[in-house]
Amino acid sequence: MPASLEPATLPRPTPALWPRLVRAVGRAIARAAAQLRRDGFALAGVTIYTVFAVVALLADVLATHDPMEILFLPTGKLAANIRPGADFLLGTTNLGRDIYSQLIHGTRSALLVGLSAAVVVASLGTVVGLVSGYFGGRIDMVMMRFADVALSLPFLPFVIVLIGFLGASINIIIMAVALLLWPNTARVIRSQVLSLRERAYVEAARVTGASTWRIMFVHIAPNILPLSFLYGSIAIGWAILTEASVSFLGFGSANVVSWGYMLQDAFASQALSRGHFNWFIPPGLCIVLVVVAGFFISRGYEEIFFPKLRD
Amino acid sequence: MAALLEADDVVKHFPVKRSLGEIATGRHPAVHAVDGISFAIESGESVGLLGESGCGKTTTGRLLLRLAVPTAGTIRFDGQDIGTLAGDDLATFRRRAQLVFQNPFEALNPRFTVLRAIAEPLVNAGVPRADHQARVVEAMRRVNLADVDQHLDKYPHQMSGGQLQRVVLARALVLEPIFLVADEPVSMLDVSVRAGILNLMRDVRQAMGLTAVYISHDLALVRYVCDRTLVMYLGKVVEDGPTEEVIRLPQHPYTQALVKAVPVPHVDQSHEPLPIKGNVPDAKNPPSGCRFRDRCPHAMARCASEEPPLREVAPRRRVACHLLAA
Q: For residue range A25-79, what is the model confidence (pLDDT) as tens digits?
């Protein structure tokens, strides 16, 4: 039956994908911002991340010296063990390296490790969880046994053995963290998918002929993305902590300045017994701040994610 | 008229977890949700599937739409066995057969606007994007969703139950199907909007010449919208016939009890006690013979040993009961 359309309801041009996506992201940010105003923890976490991100981006501008350069005083003497002051903001190490510049540059490797690991953990965990939960049966069985194996590996020894075989590098650490953390994400996503796939609207998609992939990625995935982000933000903290631990134990990459490397350096040269608090307190504090910020954010956003998945 | 849909001895069992003893003895326990039902639906008919919860009516509906595949038996839609459909044939079937859901609050993706929800079948059917909006608007007109413009960009949580059920109906109609299954289409709605939705469905069905199956436990609904009624009990069809006849002159003892169980709005009306007692038996271990025998006031020895077949007792009238075996 040819419906007589009034001008008001003439077909509007269907909005293209990008504007819709931009609007969706905009809505998500607006919602996140609204939550920030309510939740002090999340606000603190976001502030910490923002500060560190700015520092990492501007590291070359903010650093006063090359972090690995061995510095000399104008007198020609090695600038070793100098106390914090105007020339060396946080003092120098026993080999004459500027601690402040190392701290600034350490932000970069910390965020690099943290964010890459988070992206890998969140995407791997999400895809495995989706496939496992949606298809069930044998696929689910096999994937979840892999997850069990990964969960049963002791964290640090695994990373150290991996580095022993493949050599010390930031990429190996990112890989190791991703390999060990994806099961947590995958399991939570899977259980959500188990409940979502029984929803009537998924059945509705099926009865109108939606393909399996379309059901998984268009109808189900958007409802679990918040969870993926949550687990990603937790992975940031874990990855940074792992990198620091590995570096502290001396298995880190020798030519990348990281906070863990600084701690190891300070430890090896007995900074504590010499009372060089300016050497190891700042990197330690930074690690704590970044890790805690990740948990603050996830804590704050749990409130949006868990009570109701709808907006 | 030719049969649009034919179910031939359709069985659907859902396996349940086996205990150690059952594994040892090699038994496979299963819930017998649908246990051998046969019927044909003619083009343009509106058929009610009546029964209490757990009798297999929803499973039957899912089987008819191939949301589940029968354990045994075949369902033919327009001459094709839908159990074996694949690829293009399945896509065609999906365009021609649609479902209206019980709970409109659940049946719509909370992240989809009305426009996107109703356009989803069009996307899946490969209709060009440029035509979507016009067809969505047409479908919304058809279900009397006034102020189309005002609704297009709304999300489900911004609408009322009655409006949502209209959206669900519009989504089912947008591909212009020829067959519709409505699973308890109004049971989740406020009483005040039920009649509106039912009238709408009836009008739409007549205007579009749809064949429809209404699944319900509600005698009044079935009487209101269905020409013919199939009464189900524990995975079996026990009675089949024109709705008015089934309700006025129920032949099977179970149907008789169902009709008696409808409350009458008179305070001083004398209450005749229901002729049946007890609950529906476990669908994992249905009784031998007639499934209704342990609740039936007329049960005989024969009922335990022999299962009554669904027999034609009059033209267009089938009943499964030994009492009617002449």
A: 787 777 777 767 777 788 888 889 899 999 989 888 888 888 888 888 888 788 7
Nearest to B124 among A11, A201, A208 (CB): A208
CB contact under 8 A, B106 and A201: yes
Q: Which fold has domain B3-264+281-324?
A: Rossmann fold (3.40.50)
Between chain A and chain B, the number of residue pairs with CB atoms below 8 A apart is: 84
* Domain layout of chain B by residue ranges: 3-264+281-324
A7 in contact with B, Cβ within 8 Å: no
Instruction: Please name the member of B91, B99, B137 whose beta carbon is closest to the beta carbon of A5.
Output: B137
Structural domain boundaries in chain A: 35-305
pLDDT in tens, B176-228: 999 999 998 888 888 888 888 999 999 999 999 999 999 998 888 899 999 99
Cα(B17)–Cα(B1) distance, integer angstroms = 45
B110 vs A contacts (CB less than 8 Å): 201, 223, 309-311
Asked if A207 and B95 come within 8 Å (Cβ–Cβ), the reply is: no
Contact A208 B102 (CB under 8 A): no
pLDDT digits (tens, 9 = 90+) for A86-105: 778 888 888 888 889 889 98
**Is A203 in Cβ contact with B67 (below 8 Å)?**
yes
B88-96: list long-range contacts, CB under 8 Å, 24+ apart: B90/A209, B90/B66, B91/A209, B91/B125, B93/B66, B94/A207, B94/A208, B94/A209, B94/B124, B94/B125, B95/A209, B95/B121, B95/B125, B95/B175, B95/B177, B96/B175, B96/B177, B96/B178, B96/B179
Residue owning tokens 């998984």: A216
A86 contacts chain B (CB < 8 A): no
**Yes or no, beta carbons of B67 and A3 under 8 Å apart:** no
Q: Does B121 sit within 8 Å of A201, measured CB to CB?
A: no
> Is A9 part of the contact surface with chain B (CB cutoff 8 Å)?
yes
What's the pLDDT score for residue A17?
Answer: 64
How far apart are the CA of A46 and the nearest CA of chain B, in angstroms? 26
Homologous superfamily of the A35-305 domain (CATH): MetI-like (1.10.3720.10)
Residue B281 pLDDT greater than 50, yes or no: yes
From chain A, pick out residues whose CB is under 8 angstroms from the CB of B143: none
Q: Quick check: B141 and A203 CB within 8 A?
A: no
Verify whether the Cβ–Cβ distance A5 to B111 is below 8 Å: no
Q: Quote ipTM for the complex.
A: 0.79
What pLDDT score was predicted for residue B170?
93
